[in-house]
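COMPLEX REQUEST
Ligand: guanosine-5'-diphosphate
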Amino acid sequence: MDIAQLSDRILNADRRALARAITLVESARADHRAQADELLSSLTTSGRQALRIGMSGTPGVGKSTFIETFGMMLVGKGLRVAVLAVDPSSARSGGSILGDKTRMERLSREPAAFIRPSPSQTHLGGVARRTRDAVALCEAAGYDVVLIETVGVGQSETVVSELSDLFMLLLAPAGGDELQGVKRGIMEIADMILVNKADGDLKSTATRTCADYAGALRLLRKRPQDPEGFPKALTVSAVEATGLDTAWAEIQALAEWRRQSGHWDRNRAAQAQYWFAEEVRQALSARLDTPWAKSRMTELSAEVAEGAQTPQAAARDLLTGLGVANR
Ligand code: GDP
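STATUS: Structure written out below.
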């Protein structure tokens, strides 16, 4: 594959070249990895930056419907939109529920939109790295907005928030005053809560749910990256396309404030550091995944159980064998 040519085509916003490049970065083959690294290095000089929006919500809350309507609205404003997914369930099923072809039918036909399902990988870490590379490729291809979607099941939100400039949580209207079991940690990374389905019979419940969340957000510790009034809770209806303009205006206001105040650049720098540390951690844990390491681990583990070695000594023994520690 001619990497220089592929790189030129991506810089010229060629969607097929972009799709091909993402396939390349998703490949586990060593020669593909080398080509992917060469491609990504050649594209870092593009200097293009998209607004990266992370989005999470439990299945059925309306993520696909929202992305379809919201994406169409952005396209209508003359923006180019890419949609990527981080799907933690792919680790289990080997396939991707977020890759369902029937999702986002209108948006997927738009020339200004690009939709890519989650890569199938055995580890969330592997998916994260490939999604990070895909985000970089979409930026180089000149997309204005990159939406990174994930199903709300805990760990994947952290991964997506480390890939995003801002993070939105999509929620459904809920009866009573219970806060839908949303974990505090997820509330703390949200920049905006959108209560979806604020239409028809659900409208008043949605308004009440939104007020509950607005109250809960006010109780959280003030974060330096927030201007007055953020994080915010808003109601939207993905089906009726209401509230989306307001949500977009708030997103832009927040992004602009962060750009002006320097938080945008600081956040991206901190994310680069996070991914550096993560790469190191993953490379080290991959060393434990070899047949030799596994069988040595089993042997040493038995010795530890018998009291023949202390846990520390056994660990050092294994690490020395792997060449990551000295005697
Ligand atoms: P996802 O699993 O989070 O991607 O959710 P979907 O987008 O597939 O939506 C799940 C269900 O909720 C579908 O039946 C949608 O038609 C419905 N839905 C999505 N958005 C809205 C909305 O704004 N209002 C109403 N009333 N229903 C919605």
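REMARKS: The beta strands are 51-57, 81-86, 113-116, 145-151, 166-171, 192-195, 232-235. The CA atoms of residues 68 and 104 lie 5 Å apart.
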